[in-house]
Structure prediction request, 270 residues.
Amino acid sequence: MSIAFIDWGGTHFRCVVEGCEPFSFEKSSADIDIVYELETLFSKFGHISRVGISFAGQVHNNIILSAPNISATNIDLNAYFPSKSIFVQNDLKCAALAEAAYFKEDNIGVLYVGTGLGSAYIENGRLICGESNVAGEIGHIPYRTTGEKCGCGKDNCLELTASGSGLIKMAKTANLDAKTIDELLKSEEGKKIVEEFVGGVGYGASLIVTMLNPKILVIGGGIIKTNEWLVGEIKEYVGKNGFKKSVDTCEIKLSSLENGSLEGARLLAL
Ligand SMILES: [Zn+2]
Prediction:
């Protein structure tokens, strides 16, 4: 049996086929037509029977609903491809499945900082999903008004401060050309933006540790991967600001997975 698994993130679209000759490809997430991509994949590899998709947006009962950073709404892939089994889950929930398997831990939270800011939790081995599978959308809790608009339409989401897209928006507003944290740290004004960002991510991490009391909080995502030193800053922030009883029993760890969301999509397809 061959399986395919896909990480459809805010910036990149990655697909891997397993169980036959190894095959993978990566494209920009902009303008992805998922039905066309799967049609092409199935015509090349007819023996694929199961597909796992990690999607950086809202998903319910395997149906892609919407996303702040991707143009895709109300897509039921199993209706398009009835002979295949297609499993779709939110990218952070996929990452939580993968991190829980990696750390062999049943009470675990994940906070990923990439294009957006997302979180998910597993309690006693089960994903916390909520009524409509949107539990963990920490990027859209109110934090501070930035003068920018979030993909969800509000102007005070935590993601506007504590994410890669937030950093770029804040730099633009300050008329800085910088696109990375290293570039921002070269100027005084850029340093202030990085401080705001670190405070936002630390706030998100404190919130998870205080509210959900996980044994492990895994910090990952593209921005963390290229700036691992941020984990130390986050630990310090949580140590100072989290609820002590929760902080004392929680280990904050850097993700060791190459791509937690993609690995989670693989677990969905198995
Ligand atoms: Zn938002």
